[in-house]
Amino acid sequence: SLGALLSSRVHVLPHQVGAAGRILSDRTPRFVLADEVGLGKTVEAGLVLAQLAAEGKGRAIVLVPASLRAQRRDELQSKFGLETEIVDGDSVRAAERHGLKTNPFDTGGIVIASHPFAAMRVSEIERVPWDVAVIDEAHRLRNAYRRDHRTGQALRRGLRRCPKLLLTATPLQIGRASGTERV
To answer: Measuring CA to CA, which residue among 112, 89, 91, 118 is closest to residue 42?
Structure first.
């Protein structure tokens, strides 16, 4: 991830470089970054997104709680120079008012949306050939395999064909309490 490292505007720690490198070395990654709050999961994900963009694989969806959409957009812009587009009810209605009826997620770049909004629009999400899906606060989708977890079921279906990077400060029961794990 040298290209992303050189162009980032953030002090990157060795463990963050190692995590991003491990994720990028896997051609079909499915990783969970689980550690304590403040150890740099967002920076690691930003490095991955920046490197993929540098390689011409910048079509990504970043799913976050609604309250974090603008914060993630601002962080990706200020720290990594990555342009993103927030897709939500307001942006979709505004596009429709201007006569645009295209898939709002198919921008060719990085899209940020909330978990529930993405789940409601899963048919549009699954039509986009994503290079990666980053799911922040992934513990909110715990037990997504259960039929009664509608948001989790929808997102599993909509993102089944793309690499995933899940971020959580709540360590999951995956063999270790923290670190980078392949799932």
So the answer is: 112
